[in-house]
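Objective 1b: paired records.
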Amino acid sequence: MKKFLYIAAMTLLLASCTEDFKDWANPQSNPQEEVVTFGTGSVAGVDVIDFAEVPDTVDMVKVCNITSPGSNYESYAPKYYIYLNGEEFMLTPDGMMNADELELYVVSQFGQAPEVREIPAYVKCIMTDGTTATSIKSGEFTVRVIPDAPKISSTYYYIGSSNGWSLSNPDAMYELTNGGGDVYENPVFSVVVPAAYDEAGNRTDNWFKIVPKETAELDTIWNGDMIGYAVNGENEMSGSFVEGPNDEVAFAFKIPADIRADKYRLTFDMFNRTFEFEPIKELGTPDLWYLVGSCIGNGSWGNVPDALGTALVPMYPDPTNYSMLYYVGYFPAGQGFKLIHNPGSWDEQWGMNGGALVKNDGGSGNIEVAEDGYYQIIYDMEYDAVTITKYTENVSVYNSIGMPGAYQNWSPSGTLMTAMSTVVENHDWLMQNYTYVTDTELKFTADGSWTVNWGSEAFPVGIGVQNGPNIKVVAGAYDVIFNDIMGTYYFIAR
């Protein structure tokens, strides 16, 4: 028998049989004969059936005691059925029924909560010799059942590094909720908590436990049961949890500091006893850096505020983490470039010194690649690290990129973008100061047809894919940038 029948069983429709006997062929033609007497049979209920105490290997459970009714005809074989609130189930002569069927029935009718459920019942005995049959039913009695399920509290709390291991601060009371309703119908609880930092503002490991409501109400919560890892020192972001005495059965969870996020969503399935921790990165607004140099844009090194798309080519933010910037393009050997932060200023820049990439080094020179080819530049702004590596995927070169959409009747050859690079092979495109009067949908297309097109559900930053969904654009004025190697776009609000 499978333990912990999940609450999804509540949605099953159990097939119920009628009280009409169905075990012989063509009963309409059976002649009426003398009824077989029952004799002095009886049925009696049994103690509460607690499925938490029923081993997994047990297939049948006793639901009643039967003293068999007698028969004047030895050829008549009895068959027994039990009716629970009118639903029919097979029963053995000694009052046993299928354990899974019984628990599934109880869960479907009353829910999974481990409480005593009292069900009115009666037994029917059918006696037949294969040709004729008679039946007798017992008086009503009660079957009492407790489903096998863990105890689930109405409320749980986070306690750990993010709130100083205290439940006394109302501003840092991180309560897990299931969205309301019966906790056995919806046993999944979750909460979002902030990342943990030390006094110097450095991110630290986030250690924590989950406190059930009953423990939170104790004078000393550390004497109560907690939810945590089964093994001290675990470091998993998903898996199974245990509930029990603090630091004897349940040990603290840990989210390592190097799992970078501003917040974490903690989700616990209190029925199946599983957990999952999801990092949440608050995007904010992208902070762009730009490429400038002899092989960038028009090659003029024109670092001026209005040089976007001519001398300055932007890097592209990661749609899920704006602190990561990417760029892929063609770079000729021996032609220099740099990264700058604010157009019109050289105060913040990346260059090269002694063969190493350096930031804000007054003596830095231009960055150069050793051989012609496609390169990927990644700037991790959180860790202040730039890497440049060869890009080995196949690359196509396009003559034009359009932005067809509902606002212009989906014409793939219209609304053309401007190529940013004119001195080397171009893969960056710009639509400057374009206004969408109302919300609309669009895609990017290559060379005036739908053969190659990019779409995505993300906005304002996304990575378009071939035949992807329409990009839903919010009404407004934008500078739109697009890289046809990565498929990355950014609608920069003006």
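Objective 1b, second protein:
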Amino acid sequence: MHKFSSYKKFIALGLMTAMCMTGCSTGGRNSGETPPQPVQNETKTEENANQTSTGNNTENGTATNDNSAGSVSDESESKNENAILRDAVRERLGGFVGCAVTGSEIDDPKVWDIITTHFESVTLGNELKPDALVGYSVGTCPGTEMAELNGEQIVVPKLDYSRAEKILNKILDWNEENPDRKIKVRGHVLVWHSQTPEWLFHEDYDKNKPYVTASEMDKRLEWYIRTVLTHFTGEDSKYKDLFYGWDVVNEAISDGTGTYRSDNENPNESLSEDRHGSNSSWWHVYQSNEFIINAFKYANKYAPEDLELYYNDYNECSMVKRNGIAKLLKEIKDAEGAPGEGTRISAMGMQGHYGMDSPSFVEIQDAAFKYCGIVGKVQITELDISASDEYDGTADTADAENERLAERYKKIYQSLNYINGLDDCEVSGITFWGTVDHYSWLQSRSNVGGGNTSGLPQMPLLFDQNYEPKPCFYVFTETE
């Protein structure tokens, strides 16, 4: 039987099951009336990177009947205590498994041990974002210098690579000492409305002065992408073999409308803020998707041929946003061409910030299949699961929550493996947004949006506060 026929039968079964369930399918980290205020995907910024509190982000909905699988507790006795996550995922999925890490976590020797034992790739949670690369000087430009761009001398802000290089150097050292267990890196992110200093969009890099024109901003865009990619992936860079891919553009689609994120996503948020949780100064300058298309053109121009280039977004399974993302992917794909002439896109990054009940498995599969139909490949890039309302942070509720979490992860993983078996769809990797529960971004509220939205305790990842694997860890070590 053709795999697409199997897919349609599977979807029909899922839809029948979904009709018996309650709840909406927001598909991401956000709930409420339209237009909602988007909740950003990212880990804590440097200002609050060391905070540890409790938080939650809930969603609902479910699908697909899988009574034959058995419960996680039924299988716990047969789990492999010595299983290595990266080997098991590579064997079953055929792709990599990664995690996110920030500078504060990388100094924890127990986290480092988990990373080097179980993960094949790392995403730097904050250190390659624009605000980090200007030394977190978000209120004022840290200084300027002259740069040549296409035969023209332009004034550009000074960049600071030290935070990223601290982590990258540690990974490089590990790779040199362990050539059979190398760790690769995902670059995250070149163009994003949030954690990009507002002064970058203004004359003389002063947010109190007028916005620059789109043509002037385009020079800054090309310079920035060229400089960052050349520094980390250029032929003379010591990091050139470390990166497997880069998120070119992040979260450019609106939650409320499914069209492009505008400069008025949240009317209560001023564009004069140093960096934004919702509103886009990129859109304010361009008033079109030109900056997105150009970002992929410049990334194609300056990135090595073997460096994968991605679009990355959250709430990626909700129907409204899914259709908007698909439209954007097609526009990027339609503009493809040779380096220096057109765009290039390698895969869609489905962030995977899911709740205990939603998005449904049918929604995950529908979204992945839709994106694969345009770009051929998807990756789950920031996977975590927010806690159920039944979990209150106490030991009395922890066992039941661990059971729920393991069952949820199990069915998501089954769905991803099913998708990966379709003729025209590849799931090439899964990245978890963290390693141990107490460092999760869901434990606090970021000042640019995201994380804790309700104050409830969280346990979203594969390892607990004692750095021990949880029942959900063993879901991903099954090889059949």
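The two ends are 21 Å apart (CA to CA). The chain is about 35% helix and 15% strand.
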